[in-house]
Each structure stands twice: as C-alpha cells, then as structure tokens.
Amino acid sequence: MTSSGSRYRHLFTPLEIGPVTTRNRIVFSAHLTNFAEDGLPSDQHVAYYEARAIGGTGLIITEEHSTHPSDWPYEKLIHGFHAEVIPGYRRITDAVHRHGTPIFAQINHNGGQASSMFSRMPVWSASPVADPLFREVAKGLTKREIAEVVAGYALVAGHCREGGFDGIELQCSHSSIVRAFLSPTTNKRTDTYGGSLEDRARLLREVIAAVREAIGRHMALGVRLCGDELMEGGTTIAEAVELGRMVEAGGQVDYINTSIGVATASLFMIEASMAVPPGYALYISSALRRAVSLPVIGVGRFKDPLQADRALAEGHCDLVGVVRGQIADPDFAAKARAGTTEEIRLCLSCNQECVGRMGLNRWLGCIENPRTGREAEALPSPRLPLGQRVVVIGAGPAGLQAAIDAARRGHRVEVYEREAAAGGQVRLAALVPNRAEFGDMVRNQLTECARYGVVVSYSQEPTLTDIDALDPDVVVVATGAEPTRPYWAPVEAAEGTPQVCDVRDVLTGTARPSGRVVVLDEVGFHQATSVAELLADRGCTVEVLTPGMVVGQDLGITLDMEHWWVRATAKGIAQTTDSVVMGVQPGGLSVLHHPTGAMRHVDADHVVIAGPQRPDDALYRALKSRGGRYELYRVGDCVAPRRAHAAVVDGHRVGVSL
What we know:
- The protein is α/β, with parallel strands linked by helices.
- Strand 10, helix 8 and strand 11 form a beta-alpha-beta unit.
- Helix 8 packs across helix 9 and helix 14 packs parallel to helix 22.
- The N terminus is likely disordered.
- The chain has three domains: about 350 residues, Alpha-Beta Barrel (TIM Barrel), CATH 3.20.20; about 140 residues, Rossmann fold, CATH 3.40.50.720; about 120 residues, FAD/NAD(P)-binding domain, CATH 3.50.50.60.
C-alpha cells in the first residue's frame, strides 16, 4: 500500500483557519440538501454530516441557514432565525465533533434570487430588479430594512454559537442578498449602499462586523465570494480581488471561500456537469490567493484526490472544496489518506440525483450511492444465514449493485453477463462525446465487486438448465430492457424510404447512419442529444426532432442544457420541437406539427429513435413459472425501464434484504 504522505504531499497537512485547525485540506463545502423538516435541522442532517466526518474530511461547512423571515426561496430551508434550531444544531455538531472534525455553519439571505411562494411577502434585494429565473421584481430595501437584515445575520450567528459550531461562513456569492448589493447588475442604488465598490460592499462590511461581535474570537469567520458572475456587466475577477483585499484589511475574517457564477443566471457553471473540465474555477481562488494572505478555498468539480493535491501543489488554493465527490463516497478522504484511492467511488458529475433532485424539490441523493440521503435510515436486519449462494443474471447497474450488497452481507455471489463487458446501457452511454465519465459508474461497481469477492463471468447467458445446475439459494434477474419499434417504422424499409434504427444500434455499431439523419427524441434526456453529437462528428447532417417543447428537456435539471445548445449550434445540429412522426415516406418522414395540426415532410436518409423501451423479462417469467426452487427476484429495467439511479436502488433494495 502506498502511504498517503508519498502520494499526496499537500492534501493531508493541517491548516489553521483563525482559531480552528483542520487535520487536512479537504472541505465538504456548503450545498443544499432539502433535509430540513418544518424549517428545522433533522436527524438526516445529523447522519449525513456525521458520515462525512467519519470518512475523514478536514472541514464541514453546512448548507445555508436563513437569516430572516423574508428569505424563504425553497421549501426545505433551515430557518436559522428561530431559536428552536439550536437543539438540532447541537445534535449535528456533537455528532461531527465525536470524530475530530470541525464544522462551520453557512448563513445567508437569498435576497431577490427567490420566490414569494412560501413567505407570501415581497422578496428583498438591493434594488427593484427581477431575477432571470424567478422573474419576481424585488423590493429595494430601505436603510431600516438593511439594518434589520444585518441584525438577522447577527442573531443567527448567535444561534450557531449556542449550537456548538466552530465557525460561520457568510454566503456572499452565487445566491445572496449580499452578492446582490455587491454586483453592478443588481445594485442600482444611488445612496451610500450603491455606486462604487466601496459603497456596494458596505452591507458586507456591516454584516461581517455584526457577526464577529456575535461570535467573538473563539469561532472562525469566513466569507464566500463570487469571483466571476459570468454575466454581462456583472462582478469580474478584478473586482473580486479588490473585494478580497478589502475583506482582509478589515481584520475580522479568517478565510475566503470562492465561487463562480450566479445561482440563477449561470447556475450551470456553479455545479458544472461532466461537460466542464475539473478545476475550471481555479483561476478565481488562484487570483485571490495571490492577493491576500488569508487561507483561500478553491472549488470546481474536483472528483479525485490527485486533482485536489495538484491544485494545492500549484498554489491555486489552501484548501479544496470536494462536495459531489464526498456525496458519492463519504469515505473519500479516508481512502485517499490510506492510499486506497482506487477504491474511491468516483463522482460522475452527472448531476442527476444531487443537483437534479434539488431542482425537483426532493431530498439530495446520488445516482450510484443508494445510501446518500438515507444515512439516518437503518438497514434491514439480515434475513438469510450467511454464505448463501446468490446468482445474478446481468451485470448492468442493477445487477452489480445487488451483487455488491449481497456480498457485503456475507453471501457467495456470482454474476453472469451475456455481453463481453459489464455495464449494460451505462457502458454504451459513456461512448458518446462529453459522457465518458459516466463510465466511471461501471468501474466503481466492478471495484466494489472485487473488494467483496463477487465473481463476474462474461459472454455467458445461462439457460434454465444452467441455473439449476448452479444450485443457487437466490437468483436475481437483471436482464435489462430492449428497444421498441414505433408502429410507423417498417422492419424492412421500402426503396427510397429512410432506414430506421435505435440509438443503441448506433452505439454498438450495428447501424452506421449517414447523410441526412433525423434523431427522434421521445425520452427528453441524453440519449438523443448525445447520439446526435456523435453523428454530427461523423459528418452527418443531423436534425433532432421531438414531440416536446424543448429537445432534451430534462437536461435542464442536470444543468446540461446550456452546454448542449452551445455544442449543437457549433456542430450545425438542427432542433425541431412540438412535432410527431406519423410515418415514413420516400425521402423522409411525414411529421405532424402539434400546435397547428399542419403536416410537413422532413428529409431523411436515416432515422435514429431514442424512445421508450420494454422489459427484457423472459428469463424471469420462465423461472417464475417453475415454482419456488429458490428465492427469485428481478431488478432494474427488466422490472420497468427507468434511469440508472432507479436500477441501483432496485439492486440495493434486494441485496440488503438477503
């Protein structure tokens, strides 16, 4: 085993942040969880943060705590201004401190980046400017209301002090009333709180002073700044550096955290998907670190400890924020320190169950870690004696997860896969442009299989007789799904009509469309858009056609939409919405325009379908019909075709039940 000292020279060194010393440079930075219950911290908060403390992270910064009743931008927000939060705070901090990890509370007022839906009051901001996402015109604050906001920050900081936190972080970056005062795009004031940067920063200085007075010098105080709003006329890195110097000169702040983008206008760059390179925001922390002597936290899609250690070694930052990496694997830091980096469950940056669930007002999860968001739920007690023989048919995400959890329970597990490689549709999805990291899911699952002694056999499709010969105690069928063919698509194309195939045919190489290609998007996710890019890269003239109002409509949830638009434009991919294919005809397709009822002809040499699938459940049904020779389960797409997270949850549910 390689020692952590030789592999990571910087990551596992301690650092002083004011009165607090961290044991390493890995930060579990603030991020939304939707775990709050009636505005209060929950038992799930306790279990969630404690799991990352057990996993060895150097510092935890909790999600934001609202500082004023006018701030209620989403339903499950911690209302830090109520004293009733203090016992919940204490449960969180006691749990984290048991493992020697310091924990800070991020406190914030979201300002105009919010909705009045929950508060039933106008949203507050620097000026009456509408946010581009929420579209509500904010109420520009009076000086009396500004003083009320400042007092709210001090009040919540006091609650955090009583709750046992080691420090406070002021969120002044991507979604904050303080950012709204700092930014020229949202601060149009002509009084002493507007105009020059010095005056726009007046609220920040007042909040810093009030919070420092409330917490004293035994707690750390940090400020999270936006280094680049990525908006025309917004805050730039030059202003951020000047602001960092201003913050340090005040002598009351112990560290600076960084951010990029605005949580509404440019959210897709705050929580960037795998389409954006790791470390993409390091230029912000790097510029600030050169300008100030305070410790600076760098962020920007760090998914493995080598990337984080390199950022420290090159002087870009003093600490590294690793959020999604520790959502996926709470033991990220401990595995890196132990030198077992290959065992880290690498984050995919797919944004499907972390960022995506937040956008749907659901609690935070992880596509490949079924325990994320459920840490407070106890696993069921083992039901079968140890050492049962478990046979899994299919090495996709559902089958592999069932195998992992059954083996972790102490059973003997064998997996049989009909293809020459594991992964099922996940493996195919990783073959397209900008989606290669999705393949880490397969690598992660196979690593865990090896860790728990699961035997995986390839190019084998056991028959009923073969399964009987194995004499299993449990059989788990995970045979996936297969494409369906629309009613209008003939099996054999008539002369002059377009050839019709499925996206999977393109990815496996059994079909190679050329010329004019229409990609039909009936599922609204990566299947159509990624194959469209693949074909455009091969020289095809590509049009994506969908019955929906937007091509790839669910890409907005995972923050992939903006990047898709940019790439599609660059590659000449046409996008046609509100359209339904009615049939093939010579030279193309007959298409109905939904809103008008008009029919039109679309030229096409080939049609590639990204549509609904059907369960491949023949083996399960055959086994089921024979009676109970062994316990029989099915998981994943052979139950009902869904996305990868559902498959993983299915597999986990069965595996831990054994």
